[in-house]
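Issue 218. Parser rejects a valid record. Input:
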Amino acid sequence: MVYQSAILPILAQIPRSPLEAIRGNMLGAGSLQYDNRTSDGKGSGNARYAMTMAASALNYLTMLCETVYAAFKPSKLHPYPNP
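Output the parser choked on:
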């Protein structure tokens, strides 16, 4: 529950279309990763959103980046093939 209360205000700022895409991609091939962890194992700082798909999905990921995730381009979001 601690994470939910920390994340919800951020999620409220994201428009519905990208939020639904993020939710769907998280259920399929997505993850949130923390680079930093506290001594008790909890993530701290910014989380990194990642989707891992086959190289054959590169066109799909490129389309997502150019449309649904376009607002996040300043965060250096970019698709690349995962061999």
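Fixed in the parser; the record now loads. The helical segments are 2-11, 16-28, 58-66.
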